[in-house]
Specification:
Radius of gyration: 21 Å
Strand order of the largest sheet: 1-2
Strand content: under 5%
CATH topology of the largest domain: Rhomboid-like fold
């Protein structure tokens, strides 16, 4: 699994333009559109064309292999549904900004593929023609866990009032996840584990460090990185440009429309343009 995770990283470095830019925006718009159509459909037949149904897939309705992603999860609570869409759009956009569109696209699409393969396996092993419980719920849960690992100290307002760090919400979701696995009848209880497999594939190294108890050092490194970034910003503010790529030397003065970001994996503070943020050799401490 470790070698596969690193192979994905190498692929993303070599193919930074691979993937769908703002993929989560399309997922959210598609889900909202399905919700509105379903609300207007008095016959309740429209949404049935989106369910994962292996019998119909084998008859040529191949869109069902992925259309289940757009089925609304909280269709009976409009306000909560709208909040959940915004929340997952925020998480997905943040992951894409951090990883780049190539890695985020692979992460989300692999979750869809794993879930669809599960549905295929249930059909052929247990003879279930309609696995209509398939949805984006656990795919989004995997995305939420990824966000919590990368940005554990981000605060959200619980019930719009109580500020809570995202890592504590992730622990609560993890407990609910374990409860679902234990209480859900087999083979439906395997579905939540699919999300963890996708998460573990991309966060193998992080999980190993967590098991070894290196989270404290990571927190110190993150604090040092943020401090370095702020110091770099103050230093560059005194120059004629604010950002300069450490690879190609491009600046925001010469390229005003280009995005520049700092790499948290590099030792010290190093700025990179959008062409090299995912395709540079990381700086290490001497």
């Amino acid at each position: 699994m470790k070698s596969l995770s690193r192979a994905i990283d190498r692929f993303c470095v070599r193919h930074p333009n691979f993937g769908i830019r703002r993929l989560m925006l399309y997922i959210v718009i598609g889900t909202a559109a399905v919700y509105l159509f379903d609300m207007m459909d008095t016959t309740r037949q429209f949404i049935k064309y989106l369910y994962f149904n292996m019998d119909l897939i084998r008859r040529g309705q191949l869109w069902r292999l992925f259309s289940f992603v757009f089925i609304p999860i909280y269709d009976d609570r409009p306000l909560f549904f709208a909040i959940s869409l915004y929340f997952y759009y925020f998480i997905g956009s943040s992951l894409e900004d951090y990883w780049g569109k190539a890695k985020f696209t692979i992460y989300y699409i692999s979750g869809v593929i794993f879930t669809a393969l599960y549905g295929v396996a249930v059909h052929f092993i247990f003879g279930d023609d309609e696995v209509d419980m398939l949805s984006a719920a656990y795919i989004n849960l995997s995305m939420f866990f990824a966000f919590a690992v990368l940005f554990p100290d981000v605060r959200v307002l619980l019930f719009f009032i109580i500020p809570v760090k995202i890592k504590w919400l992730a622990l609560v979701d993890a407990a609910l996840f374990v409860f679902a696995v234990i209480t859900t009848p087999f083979p439906l209880n395997i579905l939540p584990i699919i999300a963890i497999l996708n998460f573990a594939l991309f966060f193998f190294d992080d999980l190993i460090r967590l098991i070894k108890g290196n989270r404290a050092s990571n927190s110190r490194a993150s604090a040092k990185f943020r401090s370095s970034v702020h110091a770099a910003a103050r230093e560059e503010a005194r120059r004629e440009y604010r950002h300069k790529c450490a690879v190609c030397g491009k600046t925001d003065v010469d390229n005003p429309g280009m995005e520049f970001r700092y790499c948290s994996r590099c030792a010290g503070y190093h700025c990179f343009c959008e062409e090299h943020i995912n395709s540079h050799i990381h700086f290490t401490e001497d």
